[in-house]
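Before drawing any conclusions, I needed to go through one protein's amino acid sequence and its backbone structure tokens, quoted below without any editing.
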Amino acid sequence: MATEVYLVRHGETMFNQLNKVQGWCDSPLTVKGINDLKKTASALSQVHFDNMYSSDLKRAIDTVHLMKNANVVSEIGKIKKLPEFREVFFGSFEGDDIDHTWDQVAQAAGIGHETNVGKIINSVGVYNFREATKKADPRHLAENTAELDDRMIRAIALLHNLTRNEKRFLLVTHGDFIKTLAIKYWNKSDGIHDIPFPDNGSVSRGILHDNGKFEIVDYNVKAENL
């Protein structure tokens, strides 16, 4: 039995609003973030889910409870928090200004000054981008290609084991993690170049097959288009 996966990006946070790097560090949802999530929750309120899960970061936990409370056709118990679905870890750059961070990464990647992350990724490829992020990090703690890829594979394997008897579930996770999953598992991605960053509150739909294979079939769908 194939399982349908609804990946929801958390709502806008204070760090999103302030243009700060937000990976494993956390900041609260904004009023706008909560209001936007209510639209997503309303759009999904009539979709039956066998279960709901979230990353173990508070912005994701708060988001999944909004989804749960609005749903009128599902009986969801205690939400299981999955650390494997945390956002990408940016090491020493956590909480830093995003433009400053990408400029440092661009220089480490050998392309000079650049603050547009899409241009950096498309210049060197997503895997070299991750290596450059770790290189640019003064403490070299940021996740590189191998570390993030290993975590994604473990995350999918965990879901496969957790949801064997579920037909459809919802999982709240994070923008860069969802994007990196889609670069790897969406057939509209070439696996190297950048794709649009998912909007806060957007839904990306995946299929988890019996054999553990995972694929993204819909990406970054806004509430009004659900």
In short: Residues 145-162 form the longest helix (18 residues). The radius of gyration is 17 Å. The CA atoms of residues 43 and 224 lie 7 Å apart. The mean pLDDT is 98.
